[in-house]
């Protein structure tokens, strides 16, 4: 992995056998048809495509199967996100960030520089930062990063093995019928739907569970405490929607609204917050606990 002066990490691409290309430029044009050919020529001219030894390659370089190349993404325009993240804790092992709504954790789609990862790299100068887990761009709150690559797997295994307790807060409609059942553990089976962005509940053995508690009532809304026992995509959003209380300002559940692109409505942040996190540090042996300083509206 290479990192440029703005803290953006390179991307990696594999050159498979069985393909015939006159040169590397032809391969990139064929592999990424959504990117204009002139953009790839420009990246080669500016030395933004490398071999694994870090040597910049020309566009005319031969296509060599079964090898990997590195390249830098570029975006002519990104959404402007006028919100600041906060660093709650940092030592030689981990960094704990408090993410605002709307800010993605890592680069994807329309976002490259305007991501939590790249902002933190620029702010701290630590180019080896790596998120140990993810939360949605729409969700605010805690995200933990590994500082040292040799320790990264130990921390990521905590999340894989469910050895981390995460607590969220959400604002959703008040339901008299549901309130009488709380606290409760809601279980269901979640799978991808025909819409890329949405999950759906299906028949079968449960693979997702959420412990739900009532914190506060402000009719017609209520504030809930959510403790996921599993880590399925959109689990909390999907579970509350299934209970008839979709999270306030959710643009995916129950109705998937049109993608906003660059024009974001900052007046309606999803009312979901990654509030607390607890785990035993696999490197230091310490009991770690962190709490977001953010408050839902």
Describe this structure in words.
With 297 residues, the protein is of the alpha+beta class. The strands form two sheets. Strands 4, 5, 6, 7, 8, 9, 10, 11, 12, 13 and 14 form an eleven-stranded mixed β-sheet that branches. A three-stranded antiparallel β-sheet has the order 1-3-2, with no helix packed on it. The chain is built from six helices and 14 strands. It is globular and about 70 Å long. A hairpin with a 6-residue loop joins strand 13 and strand 14. Helix content is 16%, strand content 29%.
Write the layout of secondary structure elements.
Layout lengths: L10 E5 L8 H8 L5 H9 L3 E2 L16 E5 L14 E5 L3 E6 L16 H9 L5 E2 L8 E7 L5 H9 L4 E9 L2 H4 L4 E9 L6 E4 L5 E11 L2 E8 L6 H8 L29 E9 L6 E5 L6
Parallel strand pairs: 7-13
Antiparallel strand pairs: 1-3, 2-3, 4-5, 5-7, 6-7, 8-12, 8-13, 9-10, 9-11, 11-12, 13-14
Taken in chain order, the helices and strands follow as: EHHEEEEHEEHEHEEEEHEE
In helices, the fraction of residues equals 10-25%
Q: Would you identify the regions where 5 or more consecutive residues have pLDDT less than 50?
A: none
Q: Major β-sheet, in short?
A: 11 strands, mixed
Backbone CA Rg? 22 Å
> How many beta strands in the DSSP annotation?
14
Round the mean pLDDT to the nearest integer and report it.
91
Distance between the termini: 40 Å
Overall SS class = alpha+beta
Count of alpha and pi helical runs: 6
Shape: globular
Query: Which band does the percent of strand residues land in?
Result: 25-35%
